[in-house]
UniProtKB/TrEMBL annotation:
It is found in: Cell outer membrane. Gene3D superfamilies: Carboxypeptidase-like, regulatory domain, TonB-dependent receptor, beta-barrel domain, TonB-dependent receptor, plug domain. It comes from Aestuariibaculum suncheonense. One of its GO terms (cellular component) is cell outer membrane. PROSITE patterns: TONB_DEPENDENT_REC_3 (PS52016). The keyword Acetylation does not apply. Belongs to the TonB-dependent receptor family. InterPro entries: Beta-barrel_TonB_sf (IPR036942), CarboxyPept-like_regulatory (IPR008969), Plug_dom (IPR012910), Plug_dom_sf (IPR037066), TonB-dep_OMP_SusC/RagA (IPR023996), TonB-dep_OMP_SusC/RagA_CS (IPR023997), TonB-dep_rcpt-like (IPR039426). Residues 195-316 form the TonB-dependent receptor plug domain. It is a multi-pass membrane protein. Pfam families: CarbopepD_reg_2, Plug. This is SusC/RagA family TonB-linked outer membrane protein. The keyword Membrane applies.
Length: 1094
């Protein structure tokens, strides 16, 4: 709008400018004249100004909520203009004569955000005056001020900063984000979206929140916060620091079999991990220094994950690390101490006297029943010898021998700083982690160097990361060997020496190895790794609406594993010395690259139509190789040097493997927001890959999302409703977690020469028509915040239909290949999740807040359309006594066995329910049916957090209700104890669960759950061993205290000091008694953390 200033002064009576009216404007980045036009409409005023004196074409940022019109105009104009109002409501704008200062200087500078990017529209005021200005699009400002005055910098979404001029002519400022404002942005790893207008189902967690749960790794902390993010408990490996967790986000989308995992592949149900904008591995995230993490975002539905197309069906975990900050050198140091204590409370083993009594009742010492083939006199003699030992006090507790209290000590240091155009950051970290089994551990280390250069509209950043680990497995081997050790055997002989075999008196005539002896040998199992990653990113801000970015990553990884089992090990008892001792060396090399470019366009039309669009292309390549050597036969006393071995392993030779794939994709996305009422997301991506069939190299993926802001739509009472949104999405995503598939058949050279000469063997049979595994994802959610965020709640429901599935099936030996990939069936997964938090005490003024929270999740899955395609897998499961089946109408979590009616009191035999509904003593595999489901009915976390000024305490309890488990302790240590197994060993020599003595049938009329104590028949899978488990776990308890702005801190340059104490998995209450941590025990943890900022 253009008007004459002189006409305004001539014809209008001018009064002091004053409004009692308040309005709300949310327009984002617009021209000043567009903002004034909207103010005219909302406040019913008119403006008069001269285009020559008022630059109305400059860009301003408009985001005001219930703000005085006067304040809005001053903030937009920057107080460099005089504003007056006429009696008729016309506002006159003219240049303001600058305030004169006694010692006036011109101060210039650049204002940037926490990432070093320029911030346009920042208000800069001389404190105590109305002298002010705003930054231009490149973040530059210039203002006249007194050399002793103070400048005040303010911007929506950032904390207000005051800086003393101190006679300086150049003052650059880096704004600090307001943590509340951080919640308004969703980081997807490719683009950023305003949370208010984003239709996807996401959870964003700040680094401080993760560190408040625990200090091991970000994955363990994240499971406490988001109910859709589940770590499946590993009952074999327990707390082994070298294991990789099995992770699911919103259930399963794939069939997971051993054929779908190899040294290059992973779990096809595992989510995709993204670190600082580039895809990475679970191992990298596990070993990542927690103190470097700025935030983690969990993308769950198609609207949020479709940007990743063929990799997104299982969800995406986006990790952002801390970026260097401009200004004075800042140093952050963190020290973490963890104490892990082995949890052996779930072991219910016999003591020496109970074990001998069990042997007596089960017939070990009864002629005719005993497997020792001795006369009763001799049996009684040996029994009495053992009894004498027990009477002398021999009652060996073997479980404490291989375990220890493990300690972990970690250090993390990060320094950052920089000048106007260059910022830098240098980080170092090291962690020495001891496992609870002696000799096991993991040392991780890393360094990173971050460099950012900004000049005008160009921003270039480079992030170099070098990290690695050294991992050791325990020389004590499997914990199960110590759980089996007989308690009436001594650990050492009369001289205190550890013997090779336990049964030194030869009671059983069996070479029963002493697990302590094996631990004393020089066997080892170690792995070392080094990884180098470089991320280069560039950005060009073409104008206030268009931005171009590009990124390039290269990654090189080398892993070496050596496993040596000494020839003296008891497992080689009776084996030729030429084959005693084994050595295996495996080396894996991995190289990958990623190149991507993206254009982003954003604009606001008429103050109501906010549009953001992105167009991005990417190419990726990965090449992995493996070399393995296995040798056998070592002289006694050797250290595992393969040069001393007698030969390669029988019928073997050095092995190699290679896996190479390339991907290309193009993605377009758009976000539209109409007047803060309705918002839409649209994503379309095309992927090309060499993973699937050569005739099916390309596949499209897409998603559409919509949302509705009910607070703005119905003008709800904002004192009650801070926000209320409905959102939903539908889309098609994919899964490429099958790295060992091949789009072409592969032949290898045969080592055998026939009459026709040299030959080739078909090693991999390709399926050129193998279709991509795709998932249709439907999601709906409701989000609300009440009473100024005092109460927040989120409810999500979803459906994921994966069709077709990719499965590897066994082929007949006549084909010359083991398996063949094909498309078969579908998997339908449905679920819901709830996140609720409320604060009974919410006194921000006095810094007193008490918050209670509840999360819960429920998931159900169902197979369909298999018909008989997977019969070979079902036959294999039957032969291996697996509890899993692949059948239409049933879940991948279903447990299959013959239904048991219990133990017949008169005979001590098990009674089964046949398929026709009749009781029978005969176990028939045709009677196998679904008898349980391992997926919990409900799972989640109950949390309590109290903050009083600088002190905080939080308690997080995990609950799981309704899931069925197969109780291995009942199956293997109460029953199924053979008097002579396939190795010819009487398993009664091993220690067993106490219930094998107390709860088994002994005499007619006994009402028991378990068969006769003298029944040694092999036990088949039945529903007797499947039990419903309800669990409460003390997952995280935290105490924290923070020192900030204390007088004593300034003397040592300390800005902030944070102390934390944790307890993780400190207790576990279960409705069943089952052994946990079969090969490696679980642990209870107490830890401490110190964080200092200088």
């Amino acid at each position: 709008m253009k008007r004459s200033l002189m006409l305004g002064i001539t014809f209008f009576s001018i009064t002091a400018f004053s409004f009692s009216q308040k309005i709300s404007l949310k327009m984002g980045k617009v021209k000043l004249y567009e903002a004034l036009k909207e103010i005219k409409k909302e406040a019913n005023v008119d403006f008069f100004y001269s285009d020559k004196e008022v630059n109305v074409d400059r860009t301003v940022f408009v985001d005001f909520n219930n703000t005085d019109v006067e304040d809005i105009i001053y903030k937009l104009l920057g107080d460099t203009y005089s504003v007056q109002k006429t009696e008729d409501g016309i506002v006159l704008i003219s240049p303001r004569h600058s305030i004169s200062f006694k010692n006036e200087i011109n101060v210039k500078g650049v204002v940037t955000d926490n990432d070093g990017l320029p911030l346009p529209g920042v208000t800069v005021l001389v404190k105590g005056t109305r002298q002010g200005t705003t930054t231009d699009f490149d973040g530059n400002y210039s203002i006249l001020a007194d050399e002793a005055s103070t400048l005040v910098f303010s911007y929506i979404g950032f904390k207000t900063i005051e800086v003393e001029v101190g006679g300086k002519n150049q003052i650059n400022v880096q704004m600090v984000p307001d943590f509340k404002a951080l919640d308004e942005v969703v980081v997807t790893g490719i683009v950023e979206r305003n949370k208010e207008s984003f239709t996807g189902a996401v959870t964003t967690v700040k680094g401080e929140e993760l560190k408040a749960i625990g200090n091991l790794n970000v994955i363990e902390s994240l499971k406490t916060i988001d109910p859709s993010f589940v770590i499946v408990e590993d009952n074999l490996l327990g707390s082994n620091p070298n294991r990789l967790p099995n992770i699911e986000v919103r259930g399963k989308t794939s069939i997971s079999t051993d054929d779908l995992r190899d040294e290059f592949g992973g779990n096809p149900n595992q989510p995709l991990f993204v670190l600082d904008g580039f895809e990475t591995t679970l191992r990298t995230i596990i070993d990542l220094d927690m103190n470097r993490v700025s935030s983690i975002t969990v993308l769950k539905d198609a609207a949020s994950t479709a940007l990743y197309g063929a990799r997104a069906a299982n969800g995406v975990i986006v990790v952002e690390t801390i970026k260097p900050k401009e200004g004075k050198l800042l140093v952050n140091y963190t020290s973490d101490l963890r104490v892990d204590m082995p949890d052996l409370t779930d072991y219910n083993l016999m003591n020496a006297e109970q074990k001998l009594e069990y042997e007596r009742l089960s017939g070990v010492w009864t002629e005719g029943i005993s497997s020792l083939n001795l006369s009763q006199f001799k049996l009684d003699e040996q029994y009495n010898e053992i009894l004498k030992e027990i009477r002398r006090g021999v009652d060996t507790y073997w479980l404490n021998e291989p375990v220890r209290v493990g300690t972990t000590l970690g250090h993390s240091l990060y320094a950052s700083g920089g000048a106007e155009n260059v910022t830098y950051g240098l980080g170092l970290n090291y962690r020495n982690q001891e496992g609870v089994m002696k000799g096991s551990g993991r040392d991780t280390w890393g360094t990173n160097f971050d460099l950012t250069y900004r000049k005008g509209k160009i921003n270039i950043s480079n992030r170099l990361r070098i990290n690695g680990y050294d991992a050791q497995e325990s020389p004590y081997g499997s914990f199960a060997a110590f759980a089996q050790a007989n308690p009436y055997f001594r650990k050492t002989d009369e001289n205190g020496d550890v013997t090779r075999f336990l049964d030194i008196n030869d009671y059983f005539g069996t070479k029963y190895g002493n697990p302590l002896y094996n631990a004393s040998l020089n066997s080892e199992d170690k792995t070392n790794n080094i990884q180098i990653t470089n991320n280069l990113q560039g950005m060009w801000t073409v104008n206030d609406k268009l931005r171009l970015t590009t990124g390039f990553q290269i990654n090189k990884l080398t892993t070496n594993q050596e496993v040596f089992v000494a020839p003296e090990n008891t497992k080689f008892s009776g084996v030729s010395y030429l084959e005693s001792g084994t050595y295996t060396h495996t080396q894996t090399e991995d190289f990958s690259y990623t190149l991507n470019s993206m254009a982003t366009y954003a604009t606001v039309l008429n103050g109501k139509h906010s549009i953001t669009g992105n167009l991005r292309g990417s190419i990726e390549g990965n090449k992995s190789s493996r070399l393995g050597v296995s040798a056998v036969g070592f002289p006694l006393g050797t250290n595992g040097n393969p040069a001393y071995s007698f030969s390669y392993s029988p019928n073997s030779k050095p092995s190699t493997g290679q896996n190479e794939y390339r991907r290309v994709n193009l993605v377009a996305s758009a976000n539209y927001n109409y007047n803060k009422l309705y918002f839409f997301d649209l994503n379309y991506r095309v992927d090309g890959s060499t993973v699937f069939g050569s005739n099916k190299k390309y596949s499209p993926f897409w998603a559409v999302g919509a949302g509705w802001n009910l607070v703005n739509q119905f003008d709800l009472n904002k004192a009650v409703f801070t926000s209320l949104r409905l959102r939903g999405s539908i889309g098609r995503t994919g899964n490429q977690g099958f790295n060992n598939l091949s789009d072409v058949s592969i032949y290898t050279f045969s080592t055998y020469i026939n009459s026709f000469g040299q030959s080739l063997d078909l090693s991999t049979l390709a399926n050129p028509n193998l279709r991509w595994q795709t998932t249709m994802d439907y999601s709906f959610g409701l989000e609300t915040s009440l009473f100024k965020n005092r109460i927040t709640a989120q409810i999500n429901t979803y459906k994921k239909l994966t069709d077709p599935l990719v499965v590897k099936i066994d082929l007949p030996s006549s084909t010359g290949v083991v398996s063949y990939p094909l498309n078969a069936g579908l998997l339908d997964t449905k679920g819901m999740e709830v996140i609720f938090r409320g604060s009974p005490i919410y006194n921000l003024k006095d810094s007193k807040v008490w918050t209670v929270g509840l999360t819960l999740a429920a998931v159900k899955s169902r197979y369909d359309n298999f018909k008989n395609t997977l019969q070979s897998l079902n036959d294999e499961a039957l032969n291996n006594q697996s509890l899993q089946r692949y059948k239409d109408g049933y879940s991948p979590d279903d447990l299959w066995a013959v239904e048991s009616l219990g133990i017949d009191p008169s005979t001590g035999e098990e009674v089964f329910l046949s398929a026709d509904g009749n009781p029978t003593f005969v176990y028939n595999t045709s009677d196998i049916k679904k008898v349980g489901n391992s997926r919990p009915t409900l799972e989640g976390v109950i949390s309590n957090t109290l903050r009083v000024k600088d002190f905080s305490v939080s308690v997080n309890l995990r609950y799981r209700f309704g899931g069925d488990v197969f109780n291995n302790a009942l199956y293997n240590k109460v029953e199924n104890i053979n008097d002579r197994n396939v190795q010819g060993i009487d398993e009664r020599i091993y220690n067993q669960d106490l219930r094998a003595l107390t709860d088994r049938w002994k005499t007619p009329g006994d009402i028991t759950q378990f068969k006769s104590i003298t029944n040694f028949d092999a036990v088949k899978m039945s529903s007797r061993f499947i039990q419903e488990e309800n669990v409460i776990i003390g997952e995280s308890i935290n105490f924290g205290y923070q020192f900030e702005d204390k007088p004593w801190m300034g003397n040592i340059g300390l800005k902030r000091l944070r102390l934390n104490a944790y307890m993780n998995d400190i207790f576990r209450i279960s409705s069943i008694k089952s052994e946990r941590g079969i090969d490696y025990p679980f642990a209870r943890t107490v830890s401490f953390s110190l964080n200092a900022n200088f």
